[in-house]
Amino acid sequence: MVTRGNLPARMSAVDPIPTPAETAITGSASVTTWRDYFELTKPKVVTLIVFTAVIGMFMAVPTVPPVSVLLFGTLGIWLAAASAAAINHVLDRRIDAQMARTRKRPLPLRHLTEGSALLFAAMLGVASMLILVTLVNALTAVLTFASLIGYAVVYTVWLKHATPQNIVIGGAAGAAPPVLGWAAVTNTVDPNALLLFLIVFTWTPPHFWALAIARRHEYAKVGIPMLPVTHGVPYTKLHILFYTILLTLVCVLPVLTGMSGPVYLAGMLVLNGIFIGYAIAMRRSERADLPMRAFRYSVNYLMFLFALLLVDHYLR
Predict the structure, then answer these.
(1) Who contacts 19 (Cβ-Cβ below 8 Å, separation ≥6)?
(2) Is residue 51 within 8 Å of residue 306, measured between CB atoms?
(3) How many other C-beta atoms can be found within 10 angstroms of the C-beta atom of residue 306?
(4) How far is 9 from 159, CA to CA, in rounded Å?
């Protein structure tokens, strides 16, 4: 087992971009295209984030939210999430250059400079705040900004390198979008919105730990103390099982509070049963493909779960 004490020294967020020799395995400098900037926004991740925010908007009212809120709220939250993603690219650029999963990102490939990426992130962030403050409401802008800082700075700069519980603690920033969507419509932080937050917050550890098991050697190489690196794979698998069971219990809360009904409950039990099945399979088997299969399922799980919430909301 690798312990925190013998992990490689962590990479500094202010280290320069690797030299051409250092990045020979990832390619040489090339002409910048719009795709490089688009890649900075982590489009797949941000799409899932914004999806949960939009569901929060619809769940906030019995009918349909105002079109202007749907449009500008979604745009503002998307821009903020994209800005945070771009900042993450800059801060993690040296780590990304050493990991197979991330070494073909624009900065390790030297398609973009650090300065241009930061300027792009700043433009997205400023645009987000202007849209939310002027066209939605100040509460949503404040909460969105706090979420941006939580992920792009607190998690990326500190938590990610400080503790194997980085995903658990830092998951609060990633779980905020449903609350942001709800606040965009109602200008309040509703208890039901916090239930949606709690679902995403509890989902985050088993989701990321499955990926961390599959990529544990890369995380160890760059000195990131992910749980399977510091405490071993069996320990991590046990915690994944624990969190998937806890997630199922949390997912029952919307039914107990009356926010959701039988359609959601039935679908949720099926989705969570499959998730727990993956966790049990990983616990019992050493098959190398299971962690990534569980990781991919967890992405679809969250999307389908929130879709169920929406369907049930309008069928009741």
Answers:
(1) none
(2) yes
(3) 23
(4) 15
Per-position b or e across 130-153, b if 16+ CB within 10 A of its CB: ebbbebbbebbbebbbebbebbbb
- CA-to-CA dists, residue 103 to 79, 110, 179, 295, angstroms: 24, 10, 33, 20
Taking only the tens place, the pLDDT of each residue in 31-75 is 778 999 999 999 999 999 999 999 999 999 999 999 999 999 999
Q: Per the structure block, which two tokens stand in for 149?
A: 């800082």
Contact 40, 120 (CB under 8 A): yes
Q: Say if residues 133 and 141 touch (Cβ distance below 8 Å).
A: yes
Closest to 17 (Cα-Cα) out of 143, 158, 113: 113
Q: What is the rounded distance in angstroms from the CA atom of residue 272 to the CA atom of residue 179?
A: 22
- What whole-number distance in Å separates Cα of residue 131 and Cα of residue 79? 9
| pTM for the model | 0.89
Q: End-to-end alpha-carbon separation of the chain, Å?
A: 51
113/90 Cα distance (integer angstroms): 9
Confidence of residue 101 (pLDDT cuts 50, 70, 90): confident
Residues 6+ apart with CB under 8 A from 173: 147, 148, 150, 151, 154, 155
CA 114 from centroid of its chain's CA atoms: 23
Query: Please, where are the H alpha helices in the chain?
Result: 34-40, 43-59, 67-91, 93-98, 114-135, 138-149, 160-162, 166-174, 177-186, 191-214, 216-221, 227-230, 233-256, 262-284, 290-315
Determine contact, residues 189/137, Cβ cutoff 8 Å: no
CA-CA distance, 39 to 226, in Å (whole number)? 24
